[in-house]
Amino acid sequence: MAAKGTETRVYTIDDIAKELGVSKTTVSRAISGKGRLSAETRAKVLAFIAEHNYRPNAVAKGLAQSKTYNLGLVLPGDYEDTELPFFQECMAGICEVALENDYDVLISMVTGSSTTQLERVINNHKADGVIVSRSTVNSPVVALLKETEMPFVVVGAPQDPEVLYVDNDNQGACRDLTTLLFGKGMRRLALLGGDETHSVTGSRFRGYQEAHQLAGQPLQKDLVFKNISTVRQAGAAVGEALWQQVDRLICMDDYICNLALVRLRELALHIPQDIRMASFYDSNLLKNNNPPITSLRFDTKELGKMACQMLLDRMAGKETQNRTCSGYQILLRDSTK
């Protein structure tokens, strides 16, 4: 608090220019470090700024450097309730790194092929780069970003080799969990999978396939069920798997696992007494189930931090390459005892 009889003055670029007898352009060039300016003049402006604790607001700073100091984050508008923790944790990591670099994050929701919100962000120059939180086959979001030449990073491995991305090691993690189950004497495994247009579905399935190859076990294609999104579809897959006398149900994520659990309860079947169960993705839902479900845990916040830093590096013209967040845990719980 200022002492009585004194005032704390807030300076603008215009004020600084008048105080020093220079133009506003000169002040802006000194702040941004761009444009022709003598070392003596730049030093004089910076010294004044330091003495008076001047801090340019985001708009002024952005205008001086031709930046918005905003990053766009694309979220799917059709996510399931159980997917929300993934996007929240990923966004927390993104926002943490953005804040450290004086950036704000703008959210755009995309459902299906509608990219209207993102188009407004791009056309109105509201962001300097974009992070896409879900990788899908033939993504309209990726097509738009490539067409407009907007710097972007995708969370999840895309089909397009030209697209920069970060991803969890879904293939390696799913391979290791499946291999562990084979080591526990289980041989007839049924896999309940999600939307095949989501890249993560392909990665998890490849890990499942690789585990079969390493164990010398034939992959039983009639025990692989994909594109499950409803209780009815999950119930049909569970019924077919039980009829074929499987040892274990493996679900690609916690949402599908919950759908399968609903059907098992309807059939009055108990885990692990009647059938064992595991998931390729963990959540509080599975942790708190009775009994708790064996699953895989990934550091989703770290994934978000990696995505944001990669985008900032790309925007700065630094050399960037695809990265995999290799850390994961296999959580062995009562469902596989």
Which key features would you list for this structure?
six-stranded parallel β-sheet, disordered N terminus, single chain, 15% strand
What is this structure's SSE topology?
Elements lengths: L12 H8 L3 H9 L6 H13 L6 H8 L4 E7 L7 H17 L3 E7 L5 H8 L5 E4 L7 H9 L3 E4 L9 E4 L1 H14 L5 E4 L6 H17 L8 E2 L5 H13 L4 E4 L2 H13 L9 E4 L4 H4 L7 E4 L1 H16 L7 E3 L2 E4 L6
Parallel strand pairs: 1-2, 1-3, 3-4, 4-5, 5-11, 6-7, 6-8, 8-9
Antiparallel strand pairs: 10-12
Helix pairs in contact: 1-2, 2-3, 5-13, 8-9, 10-11
Briefly say what this structure is:
By secondary structure, the protein is of the alpha/beta class.
Which segments are poorly predicted (pLDDT under 50) over 5 or more consecutive residues? 1-7
Number of helical stretches of at least 4 residues: 13
N- to C-terminal separation?
64 Å
Oligomer: single chain
Can you give the mean pLDDT? 88
Strand residue content: 15-25%
Residues in helix, %? 40-55%
Q: Which structural class do the helices and strands define? A: alpha/beta
Shape: elongated
Order of helices and strands: HHHHEHEHEHEEHEHEHEHEHEHEE
How would a textbook summarize the main sheet?
Answer: 6 strands, parallel
Can you count the beta strands?
A: 12
* Rg over alpha carbons: 26 Å
- How are strands sequenced across the largest beta sheet? 2-1-3-4-5-11
